[in-house]
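Structure first, sequence second, as always.
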């Protein structure tokens, strides 16, 4: 099995390389930082012609925090759209029999939805705070379906909750919410700060997936990518969520942080609830076991401790 990972130097991409390597599957990676601009059709053609993959895992995305996406809205839309079009056009030319696996952030679900069912994922507009990025997640599906009709390309769409885990960025503007909280509290603890500011009111509820779990799932899918039940988008779901306040309590307890938390109510909470229906996931992947949340948090804290070092 020949595997190509797009965006292999990013958060999810690094986890995919690690998990696949541990399973004895070597991957070839492509990312802008390593000389392949996925927005450029010719560069994507050259990469795919060289790697000749059977499986393509699309971890590439131009994304960041709420604030980052708002401040860079046009670039987020343009870059992600160009990457999608370039990748599919290049696949059609070079490797139309390959399967491409897309992890799609669940911000693509309608803003009005609180319990996310696959059959309803495009039944209404996305939340305005994430529109520049979320709209491009829906575009991936539209383009993929069109290339399936005209070129026979096989695409798999995994609707994914918020991720956390090792290998996320240390840049607050680029970091996933939970990892950013861990980084912020750890920094405060190690620099002897007595207060940490958290955006919003803390009431927003989110579902979470450990980054290595998502990578393990994609390894499972890569072994049998043409299963009929994977033709439609599927939730990577556990049907459970935690509020931001609950997350903060868990992080404080895990770190032993005794300072104060200040909630900045001037900042948006975003959608108030995002929990995913796991009915279909359990049917398709009945044996898959997710990492216990406490173990995932411990691994993530250990990762950030290795990054954030301060002199005593």
């Amino acid at each position: 099995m020949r595997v190509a990972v797009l965006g292999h130097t990013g958060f999810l991409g690094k986890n995919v390389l690690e998990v696949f390597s541990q399973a004895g599957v070597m991957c070839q990676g492509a990312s802008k930082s390593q000389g392949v601009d996925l927005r450029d059709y010719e560069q994507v053609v050259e990469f795919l012609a060289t790697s000749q993959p059977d499986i393509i895992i699309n971890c590439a995305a131009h994304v960041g925090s709420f604030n980052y996406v708002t401040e860079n809205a046009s670039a987020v839309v343009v870059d992600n759209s160009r990457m999608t079009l370039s990748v599919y056009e290049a696949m059609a030319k070079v490797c139309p029999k390959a399967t491409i696996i897309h992890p799609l952030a669940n911000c693509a679900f309608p803003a009005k939805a609180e319990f996310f069912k696959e059959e309803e994922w495009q039944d209404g507009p996305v939340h305005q705070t994430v529109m520049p990025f979320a709209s491009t997640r829906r575009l991936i599906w539209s383009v993929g379906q069109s290339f399936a009709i005209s070129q026979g390309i096989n695409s798999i769409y995994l609707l994914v909750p918020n991720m956390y885990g090792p290998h996320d960025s240390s840049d607050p503007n680029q970091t996933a919410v939970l990892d950013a909280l861990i980084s912020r509290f750890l920094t405060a603890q190690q620099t002897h700060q007595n207060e940490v500011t958290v955006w919003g009111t803390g009431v927003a509820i989110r579902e979470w997936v450990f980054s290595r779990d998502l990578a393990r799932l994609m390894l499972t899918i890569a072994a049998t990518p043409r299963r009929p039940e994977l033709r439609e988008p599927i939730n990577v779901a556990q049907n459970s969520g935690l509020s931001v306040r609950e997350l903060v309590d868990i992080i404080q307890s895990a770190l032993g942080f005794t300072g104060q938390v200040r909630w900045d109510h001037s900042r948006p909470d975003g959608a108030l609830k995002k929990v995913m229906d796991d009915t279909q996931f359990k049917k398709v992947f009945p044996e898959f076991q997710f990492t216990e949340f406490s173990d995932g948090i411990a691994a993530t804290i250990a990762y950030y401790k290795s990054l954030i070092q301060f002199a005593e």
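Margin note: The longest strand covers residues 99-105.
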